[in-house]
Each structure stands twice: as C-alpha cells, then as structure tokens.
Write a structure and sequence with these properties.
Helix content: 25-40%
CATH architecture of the largest domain: Alpha-Beta Complex
Distance between the termini: 42 Å
GO molecular function: inorganic diphosphate phosphatase activity; metal ion binding
Number of helices: 10
Catalytic activity: diphosphate + H2O = 2 phosphate + H(+)
Protein name: inorganic diphosphatase
EC number: 3.6.1.1
Largest sheet: 6 strands, parallel
Order of helices and strands: EHEHEEEEHHHHHEEHEEHEH
Cofactor: Mn(2+)
CATH topology of the largest domain: inorganic pyrophosphatase (n-terminal core)
Length: 306
C-alpha cells in the first residue's frame, strides 16, 4: 500500500512542490508514494508546475486507513480532517512543532530553514538520489517563494545554497529573474473575488484554545489593493463569523518595501498592541520589516494569547 505525501489545507507552492519532490524521492528508495493535495492550486503554484511540465498532484481529502507523510506543517488545524484515522509515517517541515500526534514511531525531518523544499533537498543528499531537472526546478521555485527571493528573515545560508545547486541542475541561469516572474503572477489580483484572495494563502492556528486565521498576499506593489481593500476587510469579517474564529488577520505584504499592512478583525481590540507594540487604526496596522508569517507574525501573536 503506497503512502500519500500531502501538505496543508489551502496549499502553497512549498506544500505542492514538496509533495511532488518527496513522493519521487520515496519511490526512488523503494517506498511507494503518491503525491496528493488538499486544495486548489494558487496562481503562483500553477505557474511553477506549468513552467516545469507537471500536472497537479491528486486531489484527495480523506485519508482514513492510509499511511500519510505530512509536508510543510505539523498542525492539526491544517491537516486532513480525518488525520486521526490515518497513520502518519513522517513529517518534513520548517515551522514550529505543532499539535499533531501519532500512535507509532515516525520519520521526522524538521529544520529551522526558510522552506520545506530545502529540507527535502537535504533528504535527497542523504539518500544519494539524483534530482531530475524538472523536480529541481519546482523545488527551487518553492524556496524562492517561501524566502521571498531571500529577503525573508527566515532565509538561511542553507536555502541559498540549495537554490544555487537546484538552479544548476534545472538549467536556470537567472533564478532571481524567475522569482520575480512568480511574484508578478502573485501580484495579478484584478478581477479575482475577495474570498479567493483571502484564502489564497490562509492558515488557521489554535492559540491557547482560540482559533486564529492568518492569510497573506505577497505582491510587488501594495497599490494593487487600493480599489479592493474594503472588500477584503468585509470578507475577513465574514470569514471570522463563519468559522467562529477569535481573530482573522490578512497580511498585505510589499516585497519591495519589505513590510506588511495587516487588516485585522478580532474579539480583542488590543491584540496587535500586545503582540507587536502597534495599535490598529480602523482595523489596519503597518508592520515595517515584516515579511514572514511563520517567524514574525505567529510567534508574538501566540505570546499575546498566552
């Protein structure tokens, strides 16, 4: 029986590309694996897969009775709904350790780097498995996405070295130019429904018993949101009510100015003051230098709930 390799709900490029790359590696070392996904592709991920000739992984929501290898998270809120009825055989991740638990021993590759695909590159090296050019291409794109082309504070020397090595394998001469192409795709928001934008890169977190949703939209110029910001604010308010969430935050991240305007709806009017030392004004707050949800947004928010 093959294992399913799957990332988190509302998958990003790291989650999708990581599932494909890890499933290939597992098959090469004699462990049958199938790449899967829990949601639709983002425009950026679709661009990456098309660029290197891949179809989207199998869409599969139910995993009861299956063996599952988790990619790019270890959070119960982000896992398949029936994960408790599955056997988790492994986790590869670059986030904080979450609340997934297992009844049997498992393989864990968790490293404090900028992207899960950086860890997967380490796994290829460990097993001495050659990386095909097309898989190297999607892996390097995932790392460029997660590290914001090396601008994110999560970026490490390991991420940069992996991109350089993967670019050589993939035959990509100017990987930074490829990264900018990806972010131009991310910045094309005109005509997209507000709910689709809010949910494009959205994750739920359990923070001391409070459900907190955090979305992020990374663009090269925040002016693309000028005409739709009110719609985004109305939608995160609706999303909060629909999911019985304590708070919903939407980061509008400008990768050129290197900061984020955060749209906030919360049961706690002082939440951002306690978490970031800056109060919201009309439900908005600018956080200079904040690019990473994982490193700069979630940890202080969790401290505020503690």
């Amino acid at each position: 029986m093959p294992m399913y390799v799957v990332g988190h709900k509302i998958p990003d490029s790291d989650s999708i590309c990581g599932a494909i790359a890890l499933a290939y590696l597992k098959n090469q070392i004699g462990e049958a694996a199938i790449a899967a996904r829990l949601g639709e592709l983002s425009p950026e991920t679709a661009f990456i897969l098309d660029r290197f000739g891949f179809e989207a992984p199998e869409f599969k929501e139910r995993y009861a009775g299956e063996e599952v290898y988790i990619v790019d998270h270890s959070e119960l809120t982000q896992a398949p709904d029936d994960i408790a009825q599955a056997t988790i055989v492994g986790i590869v991740d670059h986030h904080k350790l979450g609340d997934l638990t297992t009844s049997t021993p498992l393989e864990c590759w968790i490293r404090p780097v900028g992207c899960s695909n950086t860890v997967i590159k380490m796994m290829y090296d460990f097993y001495s498995v050659e990386i095909p050019a097309d898989i190297a291409g999607i892996m390097l794109c995932a790392i460029l996405s997660d590290t914001v082309i090396f601008k994110s504070p999560t970026c490490t020397t390991a991420d940069i070295k992996c991109v350089e090595a993967l670019a050589e394998i993939a035959g990509v001469e100017d990987y930074k130019a490829l990264g900018m192409e990806m972010f131009k795709v991310k910045s094309a928001v005109e005509g997209t429904p507000a709910r689709d934008l809010v949910m494009r890169d959205f994750k739920d977190f359990n923070m001391n018993g409070n459900l907190v949703g955090i979305g992020q939209l990374e663009v090269i110029d925040l002016s693309v949101f000028d005409d739709i910001k009110a719609e985004l604010e109305a939608d995160i308010a609706a999303l909060k009510a629909e999911g019985n969430r304590h708070s919903v935050l939407l980061l509008l991240t400008d990768i050129m100015k290197e900061g984020s305007e955060v749209l906030v709806v919360s049961d706690d009017s002082e939440l951002t003051s306690r978490a970031y030392g800056k109060a919201t004004e009309n439900g908005r707050v600018w956080l200079d230098g904040v690019l990473s949800r994982k490193k700069q947004v979630v940890p202080p928010l969790q401290d505020a709930f503690a």
